Amino acid sequence: MQFKIDGKSFHKTRACTIKTAHSTIQTPVFMPVGTQATVKALDANDMLSLGAKIILGNTYHLYLRPGSEIIKKFGGLHGFSKFPNSFLTDSGGFQAFSLGDNSKPDENGIMFKSHHDGSKHYFTPESVLDTQYELGSDIMMILDDLVALPNTKERIKKSIERTTDWAEKAITYHKSQQEKGIGINQNIFAIIQGGTDKEFRKLSATQLCALTDFDGFAIGGLSVGEPNAAMYETVEWTTDFMPEDKPRYLMGVGTPEDLIENIERGVDMFDCVMPTRNARNGSLFTTYGKIAIKNAKFKEDAEPIDKACECYTCKNFTKAYLNHLFRAGEITYYRLATLHNIHYYLTLMREAREAILADNWVEFKKEFYKKRGIEI
């Protein structure tokens, strides 16, 4: 991986370039979520037409179905999905966490029951990398011990200890595999934990960032129940302990407002199911805020979803048509709505980058909120 900072503006905002074996990624970047090796309702050509340089795949789900060994036979995620640009794959830690009573971490890994058939599986720092080697992703996330918030100090402390221990095992294993010719073009990111406790975040970040062989660092364990203000404060604090010369990734976040606020706090990379899931549920993002397309007021609305949007959907179809498709349960709705929401997110990131490079961040942010009827 090659990484360079192209420019900075107000506070911690920065525009960077990340080069992997498959694409050049300009940050700030939003990574659409392709859980099953596809962004729901879209295919590789759609993602290319949207200008996506990187999407996220889910190690847990792909491990269970169809199996990483099958994906490897088809040339990894790139050959299997035909998306030629970069993939980031998470480690499965979040999915194990979200299984609740069906998963149980211990000192060496996480035991969980498949949500498909109840079969038992055990993830270790090494095994999740083996899965990701077969998936062939450009950026691999390590196994981490994620906990819900709020939680006890004892449990958060245990999470940090496990995550650091697993990170050490993961980077040692990764280096040994690369010496064997495995994962040569794959990069590895560690995940900082610690809840919203500043000292715990400092401890986790300091321990992990001391492991200099990692290619980048993520902030995990947020957007899991804490107030937005607590999330922003935690990111503001944590990025101070992350290296300047490597990518910073905030996992599972979030709304357009969350992206803007956390770019200002020094984050480069984001992912979230929000634009795709909201699209399917009838919630569409616009320059002026969200709209619920199922509302009766759109039944005869001849305007596009967003007059300022240049996506395929907005250039060709009306709110009335989208309202009709949604109410009729037509599959076409899911594609058109998802195209719009992903386009909105990717455009917002491109405009944020342009504002940073022009050293115009403060004005850009004010205008972003003003269009939503919010004065800052």
TrEMBL record:
Keyword tRNA processing: yes
Residues that bind substrate: D90, S91, G92, G93, F94, D144, Q193, G221
Cofactor requirement: Zn(2+)
Domain tRNA-guanine(15) transglycosylase-like: 13-372
Record carries keyword DNA-binding: no
Positions contributing to Zn(2+) binding: C309, C311, C314, H340
Molecular functions (GO terms): metal ion binding; tRNA-guanosine(34) queuine transglycosylase activity
Pfam entry (one): TGT
Details of cofactor binding: Binds 1 zinc ion per subunit.
GO biological process terms held by the UniProt record: tRNA queuosine(34) biosynthetic process
Reactions listed under catalytic activity: 7-aminomethyl-7-carbaguanine + guanosine(34) in tRNA = 7-aminomethyl-7-carbaguanosine(34) in tRNA + guanine
Pathway, per record: tRNA modification; tRNA-queuosine biosynthesis
GO cellular component: a single term: cytosol
Positions of the catalytic residues: D90 (proton acceptor), D271 (nucleophile)
Region (RNA binding): 252-258, 276-280
UniProtKB keywords: Glycosyltransferase, Metal-binding, Queuosine biosynthesis, Transferase, tRNA processing, Zinc
UniProt xrefs under PANTHER family: QUEUINE TRNA-RIBOSYLTRANSFERASE CATALYTIC SUBUNIT 1
Subunit note: Homodimer. Within each dimer, one monomer is responsible for RNA recognition and catalysis, while the other monomer binds to the replacement base PreQ1.
Family per similarity comment: Belongs to the queuine tRNA-ribosyltransferase family.
HAMAP family: Q_tRNA_Tgt (MF_00168)
Function: Catalyzes the base-exchange of a guanine (G) residue with the queuine precursor 7-aminomethyl-7-deazaguanine (PreQ1) at position 34 (anticodon wobble position) in tRNAs with GU(N) anticodons (tRNA-Asp, -Asn, -His and -Tyr). Catalysis occurs through a double-displacement mechanism. The nucleophile active site attacks the C1' of nucleotide 34 to detach the guanine base from the RNA, forming a covalent enzyme-RNA intermediate. The proton acceptor active site deprotonates the incoming PreQ1, allowing a nucleophilic attack on the C1' of the ribose to form the product.
Protein name (record): Queuine tRNA-ribosyltransferase
Source organism: Arcobacter nitrofigilis (strain ATCC 33309 / DSM 7299 / CCUG 15893 / LMG 7604 / NCTC 12251 / CI)
